[in-house]
Structures are given as C-alpha cells and as structure tokens.
Amino acid sequence: MSRIAKNPIRISKDIECTFSEGIFSVKGKLGNLQIPINSKFSIDIKEEEIKVIPINENTNDPNWGTTRAIVANTIDGVTNGFTKTLELNGTGYRASVSGSKLKLELGFSHDINFDIPTDVKIECPKQNLIKLTSINKEKLGAAAAKIRSFRKPEPFKGKGVKYIDEYIFRKEGKKK
C-alpha cells in the first residue's frame, strides 16, 4: 500500500474543487485548472481535505501516489503558483522578452526565438536571468527544460543555460 497516496490533501476555504466524469477541476485565486484523473481512482472531496481513493479496494497500483501528487500540485498551483529561474552564463549571452516571444542570444550565428506557451509567464529582470511563472507545474517544467536545451551548460567553462540552483560539475582542462 502506498504511504503517500493515503495522506489527505489539505485545502483552504477559498478553493473550489469538483470531480465529475473523470475530470478534477480546481478554482483558486490565481486561476482555474482541470486535470483528467485515471479511471482506476475516485476523488473524495470533504470540507477541508481531499482524498484519492482507488475504485478497487485491493489495489497496489503505483499510479495511486502519482495521482495524489498531481492533484496536490494542481491545488498548490492555483493557490501559490510555481516559479523557475534560469541563468545564462557566457560572454554575450542575453535574453529579452518581446510580445509573446523570448529572444535568446546564446553565441550562435543566429538568435533563437522561443514561443512562450499560453499558461506560462516569462520575464527577464536582467539580461542573463529568465524568470518563468505558471500555475501549471507540468507546462512550466517543460518550458524551462526546452529553453535549457538550446544551450546546456558545458563542464569545462560552465557556459550555457542553467537553473539558478543547479550545480555544474566542472572538469579540468587539457594539460601540456
């Protein structure tokens, strides 16, 4: 039996949750989210807590804990939101937002124009910082990973796009 999945999810009074026909809907102060729930599970909504319950009592399904975590992340997203910060390290590396595009100069012969997803907000407080915010954790992580994939940090000089809290394992260069 899953230990994580048995734990109830605490919710506050200002959140509205509904579950019908396999769709879990949450409405909070930051917005609305709807997620599909696996047909093997049901969601029990009480006043201050939510539980993910398997339909088959004797289940040992590994998706039980995953479903509970996705529901918890959805609730956390509409109440607090999620943020990720990327840092550009390298000479001449810079980023800027213009309209619905993120313009990246990463040392290539051309600039990279990244289309910003609809649920994600991107801002550049400095030329070498990119701050992404969203209520959907999955889309936020996918957008941050896509931006990072344009120029991953290399281990010799540490140049590239990295998460702000990421540690780059550095290698020693060639010796004569």
Structure description:
The chain has 176 residues and is an alpha+beta fold. It has two domains: 3-79, Ribosomal protein L6 (Outer Surface Protein A, domain 3, Alpha-Beta Complex); 82-163, Alpha-Beta Complex (Outer Surface Protein A, domain 3). Helices cover 19% and strands 36% of the residues. The chain is built from three helices and 13 strands. It has helices at residues 3-6, 63-79, 137-149, and strands spanning 9-10, 16-20, 23-27, 32-36, 41-45, 49-54, 82-89, 94-98, 101-105, 112-115, 120-123, 129-134, 160-163. The strands form four sheets. It has a four-stranded antiparallel sheet with strand order 11-12-7-13, with helices on one face. Strand 9 and strand 10 form a beta hairpin. The longest helix is centred in the middle third of the chain and has 17 residues, at 63-79. It is elongated, with a radius of gyration of 21 Å. The mean pLDDT is 91.
CATH class of the largest domain: Alpha Beta
Number of domains: 2
> What percentage of residues falls in helices of 4 or more residues?
10-25%
Q: Which structural class do the helices and strands define?
A: alpha+beta
State the strand order across the main sheet: 11-12-7-13
Instruction: Note the overall shape.
Output: elongated
- Major sheet, described briefly? 4 strands, antiparallel
Could you name the CATH topology of the largest domain? Outer Surface Protein A, domain 3
% residues in beta strands = 35-45%
Tally the beta strands: 13
Average pLDDT, all residues: 91
